[in-house]
Amino acid sequence: MAASMQKISSHICQLCKRRYLTFKHKRSSSNLKSKPWKSVVGLEIHAQINTESKLFSGAENKFGGPTNTQVSLFDAAFPGTLPVLNKGCVEAGVLTALALRCTVNKVSKFDRKHYFYADLPAGYQITQQRQPLAVKGHVDYCISDKNSFETKTANITQIQLEQDSGKSLHDEKDRISLIDLNRCGTGLMEIVTEPDFSDGTDASAFVKELQKILQTIKTCDCKMEEGSLRVDANISVHKLGEPLGIRTEVKNLNSIKSVSKAISFEVKRQIELLENGGIVENETRSFDTEIDETVPMRDKEVKTDYRFMPEPNLPPLHLFDSESVKTVSSKMSVINIDDIQQKLPPLPEDTRKRLEQQYSLKRRDVAVLVDNSGLVDYFEDVMRLSPTTSAKLVSNFIINQLLGVLNDRKLTIYKCPVKTEDFGKLIDLLHTEEISYSTSCKVLDEMFEHPNIAPKDIVDQKDWRQISDTQILTNICEKVLEEHPKLISKYRKGKLKYLHTLVNKAVIDSNNKANPRILKQIMEDLLDNK
Ligand code: ADP
Ligand code: MG
Predict the structure, then answer these.
(1) What's its catalytic activity (predicted)?
(2) pTM of the predicted model, to two decimals?
């Protein structure tokens, strides 16, 4: 009896357990469904090093030369040729590593990465697989929209030095491929990030900041359209709280827009695929800018065996600091990391912070100044020559007016005909209310046409000076009030907009020359005292 009771109760227990498990499963699968997708992005960026010659040869390193004119015997992989490490490339790599707040390895090593490709005559690329130049850095970057600014940090996994390949040019019509080896052996810095980005906007904001940094330290010109900065984006999606998903890699993105669009498309594609019961394949894709979609690469890679091996013709690369350099007898080919650190100029974020503090400018305005090459120098030159001018007014006028006029005329700030001294004088006229804001815009246009005439002379010649004389303005206001008794009574009933109507009428009566601020004050006083 006791035994059968025990059996029954164990049976009930089993039932309960099963019910509970079914319930738990249902709950967790419905949780899974309702949990939002999260996308994850990590970047691998190839930045061509801005040096006169290539990484391991003396051949010229310049974009756009006639095909196959910048190729040394080593670049063409002639037997018996040997690599000679370009010290300038290493110094650029170290400067970049320091700018990205990385730890520079005192010893790094070169490896051969083998693969067969027509524009890689050696059959292998010299890279740094085992021990890269630098590791563990970070970069702060800004995400901004109309209303907000958010500062984020991306972690840099490593920076390695490697060779670029040549270029294959495909002639679709004649169905032939031609090889240009000019790019073969150009020094590259491969900058690898942790999977720290959440979407395309995020990743592209980082690339923009990286571009600014590399351009500031002049280690890469970052002309994405010329291929000197190329981005590979690794993208995956997963449910919140779950492990990272399987990633695809979209190769060779060559504009900031493409980075953003390719990632957004890929995230959407992966989510749709998974929601429809599919699986994401670990594959290499490219971005078709005609249709704004990622597509599998034709030569779909099977897991390639690169047969990595140490590069036998290059010794380990030793770097020094101010302490260890003392032990070296010949300083000729020595690179001292501390010396390079001294050469690190203020980075874009340093400049933003300084401008904010020094001139009490808003973050948003500072960001525009720093984003547009040459604007910070122009702004600071104006401030240096006219120290009493309002910095806020100068930066506003540069951002809201000068940039527009330059754009209309397809000019860069470097070609701006308006000298900084004259620009400062124009802002002084605006600041002291000798001219109105709208007049100052007209004066700026005139200054572009006649850069040799001082803004004050333009204002005098055109008779554009603002009327700030209170007696004259009072007369104008009284006349308007006499002519519009109905507007006065409407104003009295508490409708403030009639004050603006009256002021506008007075401005028109003054031929648009009345100082609107003083005019409004006078009009208000007159109305309240009537
Ligand atoms: P591999 O050795 O195949 O190149 P890595 O581990 O070096 O792979 O990673 C390459 C890039 O892919 C890095 O930028 C890294 O941040 C990114 N990455 C790795 N895993 C993921 C993932 N699950 N989702 C998105 N990006 C990833
Ligand atoms: Mg890798």
Answers:
(1) L-glutamyl-tRNA(Gln) + L-glutamine + ATP + H2O = L-glutaminyl-tRNA(Gln) + L-glutamate + ADP + phosphate + H(+)
(2) 0.84
